[in-house]
Amino acid sequence: MSETMKAVRLHAFGGPEVLTYEDAPRPEIQPGEVLVRVRAVGLNPPDWYLRDGYRALPPEWRPDADFPLILGTDISGVVEATAADVTRFRAGDEVYGMLRFPEGVMTGSGAYAEYVSAPAAHLAHKPAGLDHIHAAAAPMSLLTAWQFLVEPGHDAANPFQDVPHAPVELEGRTVLVNGAGGGVGHMAAQVAKMKGARVIAVASARNAAKLGEFGVDQFIDYRETVVEEVVREADLVLDAVGGPRMERFLEVIRPGGALFLVNPLGFEGHAAAARRGISVSSTQVRSSGAQLAQLATLLDRRTVEVVIDSVFPLSDASRAHRRVAEGGIQGKIVLTVC
Questions:
Q1: Residue ranges of the domains in the chain?
Q2: If 0-12 CB within 10 Å is exposed, 13-18 middle and 19+ buried, where does residue 63 land?
Q3: What is the pLDDT of residues 90-113, one digit of tens each?
Q4: Entry's InterPro entries (predicted)?
Q5: Which CATH number is 157-281 given?
Q6: pLDDT digits 0-9 by tens, 149-165
Q7: Tens of pLDDT along 8-48?
C-alpha cells in the first residue's frame, strides 16, 4: 500500500479557497484504532468554523493550529486494517462514525482524505440499507439530535453549563424545532415524532414537503410568519440555528417547559427563563460508536431518514464549502472519495 494518499488540507485559515487537494502521508494506526478507506464524508458546521479559524470566537479561544491539518469528522467507508487490540472490526467491514469529537474540534479529525485513522470506539457497522453517502451524512446530526432529546450517552462535564444536560419527556408533548430543514433540525424533528411528540417544524418554505413526509404536525415558514406570534404553550423548543435573539423562543414555551440550544453562545435570556420556570439547557455532542450502532437500526428501517442537499467529489471540497456560504441548505452536504 502506498504511504501517501489524496487529502484536502489547510495550510492557513481562510475562505473555501484555502482548502487544498493534494498528496499527504497516509495515517498510521495506534492501539485501539482502525484504518478506514473513506468512501464518503459528511460536512458539518465545525468544518467551516475551523477552516475560518473560529473567527467568531474571542481571540483567546481561537485555535493555535499546527498546519497542515485535515478537516472533517463524519465518515463512511471500509476497514482497511485494525490495531492488534481491536476485536469489534476486521478488514472489509463497512463502517460509519463521527471521529474525535469534540477533542478534534480545534485541530481537525482527518476525515477529508482517502484514509483516516479512527478510534474503534467511535465507529459502528454501517447500516446495511444505506449507501456510503447517506451513512456519512448521518453521524453528527443524528447524534446531536439523540443526545439532546433522548440520551446523552456520556457523563463528561458539560462545557456550556454547570449541570448535566437532561432530556425531557417527549411522548404526548408539543416540541418545536427551529431550523428543521438543516442537518440537526431534520433529524430532531424525526426523532421527536418517533418518540410520540406533536412536532412543529420551523424552516423555509422549500422544506415543507419533505418535513410533511416526516409527519410533522405543523409547518411554519419563518420568512412569512413570526413564530412567537402564532405559537404558545410548547413544552419544548429545540433551537438548531442559534445566533441573535434566541431568547424570543421563551415566549412560545409554557411555564415549566424547556428550551434546548444546540449553539447557546450569545443567549441572553437566563433571567427571563428563570422567572417563568423554563429550563434552558445545552450539551456538547460527543463521538459514540455505541450509540451509532443503536441508531443504525433506525436508519436501516428508514424510521429516521437522511436528507442530502448536494454531493461533491473530495477534490471539490472548496466548492462544497462555497455551497455552505450560499445558505438555504436542505439536509447535509457530502463529499465522495473514489
A1: 4-139+286-336, 157-281
A2: middle
A3: 999 999 999 999 999 999 999 999
A4: ADH-like_N, ER, GroES-like_sf, Lipid_raft_assoc_Zn_ADH, NAD(P)-bd_dom_sf
A5: 3.40.50.720
A6: 999 999 999 999 999 99
A7: 999 999 999 999 999 999 999 999 999 999 999 999 999 99
pTM: 0.97
Amino acid at 117: S
